[in-house]
Design brief:
The structure is a single chain. The chain is an alpha/beta fold. Among the domains are: 208 residues, ANL, N-terminal domain (Rossmann fold); 90 residues, 2-Layer Sandwich (GMP Synthetase, Chain A, domain 3). It is 29% helix and 24% strand. It is built from twelve helices and 20 strands. The strands form four sheets. A twelve-stranded mixed sheet has the order 4-5-3-6-7-8-9-10-14-13-12-11, sandwiched between helices. A four-stranded mixed sheet has the order 19-18-17-20, with helices on one face. Strands 1-2 form a two-stranded antiparallel sheet. The relative contact order is 0.11. The structure holds zinc ion.
Amino acid sequence: MSGKEPNTEQIPTPIQSRQQDAVLYSLLQQLNESQWWSSKQLVRGQLHQLRRVVAYSILYSPFYRERFRNLDVNRLELENFRMLPILTRRDLQEYNDTIDCSQLPENHGKTSEIMTSGSTATPVKVRGTGLTSMLWNAINMREQLWHQRDHSRIMAAIRWHSDPIGLAPAGIEFEDWGMPINQFYKTGLGFYLNSSADIADQLRWLQKIKPAYLMSHPSNLMALLREAQRQAIKFPELREVRTVGETVTDELRQLAQVEFNAHLVDFYSTQEVGYIAIQCPLNEHYHIQSESVLVEVVREDGSACESNEVGKILVTSLRNYATPLIRYDIGDYGEMGEACSCGRSLPVLRRIHGRVRNMLQLPDGNKRWPNFGFAKFMEIAPLRQFQVVQRRLDLIELKLVVDEKLSAEQEAGIKQVLITRLGHPFAVEITYHEVIARTAGGKYEDFVSMISVN
Ligand SMILES: [Zn+2]
């Protein structure tokens, strides 16, 4: 199928007539067209970009010159691309200086350095460019358009920050929603609260601000929903919750709908590669941002997964010529999906399954995304917080924060639910804690594996 679908999104004209606004506007127009291209056109466009970035890397990156020494770029097709070696976080750490290109095309703008510990707590340094940050802004705007937000309303974000800013109880008030949205819309107020605030403080803050849009991390949002439910607090102004940085479960989507009467919109991005996929306006799955990244989902042996098969996510950045990331193992798992009913041929990422170190390992060597049915736990006993820790191949520790210690019967019931959900008869030990701390990266993980997977 080729013909272009009717364009539903109206791109607003930038408020000012600065050059950077004009460039962003034109990029946004291009994105608005390419989302309706046929799959064939999209793949052709990607292949063109891929050959360019690979050729450039061979010329200017000592690491890739060596790595791709036998590669004929002119004959690079997706089939032989998929045979190229995978770039690990370990490679990025070890060969950092030789991966970076020694020079940049002039129109790519200034470079900037990004240091991120990522989802596997393995710090890496990556350089971005003016072009990659322009793309970041354009896709951010695409996401705004897809989800047709009312920008005159109030937006609040409760997110992690590397610095102790926006602390409770006040947080920070901004006069608008920030870049790049304020380049196109005169927006309502924006508010920020550091997610280090405890949940009771967060709720009080939200009650004062009354946002229409709330952005947060899934685990934080889940805790907010639970506490709001417990205290019977409602937020009638709320229309949408946006999530970032962790796995979103069906349970979280449902609870947001039931408790906050809000639609949940998730997006998948990382600091190293920018936006990878954003949620479809009509469905709960994600569209890969193919104009910026090429995404593969592969098995442990490197072969491509089928649709609906969980595998490792590999990302190739098609526009970053400063630190080329080619078949980069980002540390997450996911599943590709079927073509989308909305008519966009940007490939569908059906689910994103968090992090490698959060995979459950079975004694037979298999790994599995752990599912443990928090809702079921709550039917047995009221829990404040919990964390599942895989201590050994055969031993799971369930850490609990509770008001009242559980009875032997409740403990047995919860253990049974856990074993059933995990799908293996692990030994389970329940331990009690005052609080379960966040990781050094500021995220709270509900499943932690102590078994090394590297
Ligand atoms: Zn769609």
